[in-house]
Amino acid sequence: MLDSHHSFWNQWSRHYQGFSETIEPYRAAQRALAEGAVIALDDAVTRPALTVLDVGGGAGNLIGPMLTVLARKRRSLAGVRYVLTDGAKDMTTLAEARLASLRSAFPEVDLTVLHADTLADGFEATRAGGPADLVVSSWNIEYYPSDLRLEIIRRLAHLAGPSGVVAFSSLVQLPQPLTLREVLMPLGQAQVLQALLTGGLGRMRKVIASLRQIADFGAAVSAGDFPEKPTRDELRQLAAQAGLPSASTEYQLFGTSVMVFARKDGTRPGPLPRPAISSMLIGRPGYEGHSEIVTFGSYFRELLRNPPAI
Ligand SMILES: C[S@@+](CC[C@H](N)C(=O)[O-])C[C@H]1O[C@@H](n2cnc3c(N)ncnc32)[C@H](O)[C@@H]1O
Known about the structure:
Elements: H1 6-22, H2 24-41, E1 50-55, H3 63-73, E2 80-86, H4 89-97, H5 99-105, E3 110-115, E4 132-138, H6 146-158, E5 160-171, H7 180-223, H8 232-241, E6 248-252, E7 257-263, E8 277-278, E9 293-294, H9 296-305
Parallel strand pairs: 1-2, 1-4, 2-3, 4-5, 8-9
Antiparallel strand pairs: 5-7, 6-7
Helix pairs in contact: 1-4, 1-7, 2-3, 7-9
Bound molecules: S-adenosylmethionine (SAM).
């Protein structure tokens, strides 16, 4: 039996949604996961009927990025079914509250939110409408102890059809003594400055409020009973042990998180884009060979060139 921490996620659902939809590094990471998943789908992306199962999809932060990327690759989104499942009721209530605007933005998509403990023993794909072409799960596995992570990847794979794709992301252990907050906060602050210059005090206050939400959430995670995060190597090995030997991995969230993409038929997904990592991580173990880095200044200029929609 998995301890899915539903009461924790119920309690932090609004904070989580708040910062994930405002702070650009988080939004960019969801876009990167969506883009990688579509690369892994390859020709299957154009199947007339395509099912996406978003496991532990929370308040629905991935839905918009995923459908936007799919829309670029298909003639139409007709035939696409997107099922978000989450075991925390307050998360699914937030996701449901978004359905009206998502349905008006993507009217052809059949969108469903299901409140269910999707990773529980005995949850079958038929409850979510059948095996999926793409099973995606963002920032979920790292909250489980390492002895259960293998079981979770097996369950994600079980929910995909025989030629389906499994894509997931996980925050990873950072080289000591760096913390997630230290690595990402300068980038958040770049967004504060960009918001002030382009949207005035109102927009700047919104970004600052979201950074406070991250800080509160981070403190709650640290105080909670959560295990040490996995490493990139651990995620690779677990995917192989779970029967996904040809999985590809890549960093997202400026090197603080890893995405894993695998095809159940054993073929390797095509080359993935390699996003920039934080300058704080350059040259550290696990980050060798990365030349494209991001600093406060370069990120600030990037935000001015491509302003985030908040
Ligand atoms: C960090 S949040 C990520 C939410 C979302 N994927 C995102 O990227 O915004 C983790 C989510 O996984 C959900 N979750 C954890 N274990 C689950 C399980 N066994 N079944 C369904 N949802 C689960 C939690 O309720 C929570 O909403």
